[in-house]
Amino acid sequence: MPLHLACARSSLDVIKILVGTDDDTYVDHEMDGALFQTACFRKDDERSGVLTYLLETTEAIGRQSSDRWGSNIHTACLVADLNTVKSLLKRGADINSEDKTGQRPIHNALFRTRDFVKLLREEGRERGIELFLEDRMHRNAFHFAVGNGRLDLVKYIIEERPELATQGDCDGWTPLFWALRECLHWDTESSERSAIIKELKARGADVTIPDRGKVLDRVWTPYYVATYYGLPANIIELLDPPSQLVYETKKASLCDDSSFCDICLIGIVGLYYICIECSSFLVCFKCYGSRDIVHLEHRLAVTNEGEEYVSNEEESVDNDTDDADEALLSSSSEEGIGMGDDTWEADSSGDDRESVVSGGIEKVAL
């Protein structure tokens, strides 16, 4: 659709010409989502102006939604700024709307910062917003918060509901399992992961407990999840590595830097699946067992069978890089250069985001 394409990458002047004359102004364009959602994924200097214009000129913007992203406020909580979220709330956005997985806007806010979560709770107090509702995969607020990677948000949740630290999802994965997954998108962090794991353990999280054996027909423990994601030794040590392995596991291969699971919104590693009918719909190894909850009308096929793990050559290069990084950190520490955990982290804020629309929004690196 011309207007969706324009909102993805054209100037505000072009968009102003098309608005009001193009029939697709309010249409959910299959994989693009609603018009406002397409604009949210821009990375350039025009994004703020385009969003402001759409907010001011689209009467029903607070009530728009799409099959892919849920409501406009779902998308804003995931990738836009606080002011955009506030503007949607003022325009009647449904703060309790659900997307295809049963997630509400506050679940997406949990990928961001405590400020987003507090805003929705404060604004939604009179509308009956509930932070601790589960989605259709029985993930609670804690499952989302630990994946965010920010210790302050984890403590914000755990101080209200400490019992959630040991509650499993539909596969028996407790928040500890989810804390060991690399999100790679949506402004999430990883520099405080060790502190989060220690906090979970202090609250009763069991590092040896297995899941229900439904994910890839394997029995997973936190240790196996951490090794699958190739997490560093200081994280592995916190998980009480078993003296005898039930099965050998290796670091899973990364699909690519831009792809994410359309169910859990986390970066894809290892085995993943693609919808035969709509090729931009991807599902990770963890969510494949939950596919019927969200995508009944399409068939999924595995895409990289036989390439689940990184090759020995790639693993050797990764290990050499890790050793070099550790040496640099050690050298910097000895010289008194401030390189703490909070600063030695690749930027995942979304500045490398690319959105290309051509009959459908392609995967975006956020």
Strand content: under 5%
| CATH topology assignment of the domain at 256-310 | Wheat Germ Agglutinin (Isolectin 2), domain 1
Query: Compute the gyration radius: what is it?
Result: 21 Å
State the helicity in percent bands: 25-40%
Protein name: Ankyrin
Organism: Mytilinidion resinicola
Region (Disordered): 307-366
ANK repeats: 68-100
Describe it.
InterPro entries: Ankyrin_rpt, Ankyrin_rpt-contain_sf. Keywords: ANK repeat, Repeat. This is Ankyrin. Pfam families: Ank_2. The protein has 16 helices and five strands. The protein is mainly alpha-helical. The chain has a domain of 55 residues: Wheat Germ Agglutinin (Isolectin 2), domain 1 (2-Layer Sandwich). A three-stranded antiparallel β-sheet has the order 4-3-5, with no helix packed on it. Strand 3 and strand 4 form a beta hairpin. It is globular and about 65 Å long.
List the helices and strands and how they pair.
Blueprint: H1 2-9, H2 12-18, H3 35-40, H4 47-57, E1 65-66, E2 70-71, H5 72-79, H6 82-90, H7 105-109, H8 114-123, H9 141-148, H10 151-158, H11 175-179, H12 193-202, H13 222-228, H14 233-236, E3 272-275, E4 282-284, H15 291-294, E5 300-302, H16 312-334
